[in-house]
Specification:
Chain A is mostly helical. Helices cover 76% and strands 0% of the residues of chain A. Classes of the chains: A mainly alpha, B mainly alpha.
Chain lengths: 227, 59
């Protein structure tokens, strides 16, 4: 079981799902009938990357809560790695979203609810690193970072529901209660890409967390040898 | 933006994203391997020093 959820295994699963998702999205799912045409294919990776970045911030939120409860630094390390990866995925979302915006709305950027709240998420989590860099003492830094991660997470559901709360915005609401909002082949391709991207995030988080814990161990051993 | 232009952007963006993520994975995998080796070496050194310190105490 441990081998099945190891980083290399998760990476292989992710690769398999992403390749199948790519093939299905580009060769099986029909070209969108709207004006976007082929450009709509960006949906099959733009939306999974977006949701994965929010999952990353969700993991950081859970890790922050665990740290505040236990004061165990391993949770701080998980939170740090999750925010870093969540932010990496968020930058990729902005990048793909701009292409989507240009082909769908004719502009690279629009100050509409989803985009604006998502940009705010990016700024908030970028500030997380600034906060970490200015606090020297380990436990204090971890506590401040955990509190900040809990507060920053408030913007994540706001971003998620922005298009539903303010439907006048440009960003489309694809999924509605009891309706996937798309053809079966499109939905299947999307879900496979979504699973692949989530597994890739899991593999990257596992590796990143392992790296941080190993770095701590190296520091401990060096201080034992030095002292 | 025409459909042909859009298609180019879509394909290029996907290729770049996958390249970034796969490169990130392999870089972190390499870092894990290097750190594991460092930990092993440092643990061996710690054991060796403890053993020699123990031997010196016994003398």
């Amino acid at each position: 079981m441990k081998k099945l959820v190891s980083a290399p295994a998760l990476f292989l699963w992710a690769g398999a799902f992403l390749i199948v998702g790519l093939l299905l999205a580009f060769w099986w799912a029909p070209v969108d009938a709207s004006a976007m045409g082929f450009s709509q294919k960006i949906f099959y990776y733009h939306a999974p990357i977006a949701e994965t970045s929010l999952v990353g911030f969700g993991v950081a939120f859970a890790a922050a809560v665990m740290y505040l409860r236990t004061q165990d630094l391993k949770w701080d390390r998980l939170g740090y790695v999750s925010v870093r990866l969540g932010l990496l995925f968020a930058v990729l979302v902005m990048f793909t979203g701009m292409i989507w915006g240009k082909s769908s709305w004719g502009v690279w950027w629009a100050w509409e609810p989803r985009l604006t709240t998502f940009l705010l998420v990016c700024f908030l989590y970028a500030a997380y690193f600034v906060l970490r860099s200015v606090v020297e003492e380990e436990q204090r830094r971890a506590t401040y970072a955990a509190v900040f991660a809990v507060i920053a997470f408030i913007d994540v559901p706001i971003t998620w529901f922005a298009t539903r709360l303010i439907p006048e915005g440009l960003h489309p609401v694809v999924f509605k209660a009891g309706d996937t909002g798309m053809e079966g082949s499109m939905f299947a391709s999307f879900m496979i890409s979504m699973i692949g991207m989530t597994l890739l995030l899991a593999a990257l988080i596992r590796h990143g967390w392992q790296i941080e814990l190993l770095k701590d161990r190296v520091t401990d051993l060096k201080s034992i040898l030095g002292g | 933006m025409s459909i042909e232009e859009g298609a180019k952007y879509v394909a290029a963006a996907y290729a770049i994203i996958l390249a970034v993520l796969v490169a990130y994975y392999f870089m972190s995998a390499r870092r894990v391997t290097v750190l594991r080796r460092d930990v092993e070496l440092l643990e061996e050194e710690t054991k060796r020093r403890r053993a020699s310190a123990g031997g010196a105490d016994a003398d």
